[in-house]
Amino acid sequence: MNFEMRIGMGGILKAFVLCSLMCGGAFAGTLPTPQSDILLTVEGDIANTNTEGRAEFDMALLQTLPTVTIRTNTIWTEGVQEFRGVQLSDLLEAVGAQGDMIYATAVNDYAIEIPVTDGVDGGPIIAYQQNGQEMSVRTQGPLWLVYPYDSNADYQSEVIYSRSIWQLVRMEITD
């Protein structure tokens, strides 16, 4: 039985991503190719791509990046919510973001500028689960940029709330 058969293709993808992250801090120019529906496209000033000048992510590829869980209240939900996803900082590192600003766009064409400096450890995540369930477009998903609002009073402002884009589908990294 060869290595691929024992761990399966999903395991190979995770092993590739983990090795890429640990062996130099980022992917070496080319990201793995998504195998299902594209949830997020990242383009602009990035070094690592998987299609013509872009980095496209399906759920499986997003889930190969380090996963974090935050528990926080939001102004849009009742009570403490648990969000699981990828830290913005880890996604920016994976694509080799080199700009200063993120122009984020939602399914409904809502767009907002987010400074790359928001992507810090313990900062916002690109959530793909809420309370243990994958999010649909109807429930602010499938991707929602969520800040840990309860962890820092600076995250409880209109500016940050406006950056908390749900139904996120596209990010362009610019100078």
Automatic annotation (TrEMBL):
Residue ranges occupied by any Oxidoreductase molybdopterin-binding domain in the UniProt entry: 76-148
Record's keyword terms, sorted: Signal
Signal peptide residue numbers: 1-28
One Pfam family this sequence matches: Oxidored_molyb
InterPro entries named among the record's database cross-references: OxRdtase_Mopterin-bd_dom, OxRdtase_Mopterin-bd_sf
Protein name in UniProt: Molybdopterin-dependent oxidoreductase
Species for this entry: Rhodobacter flavimaris
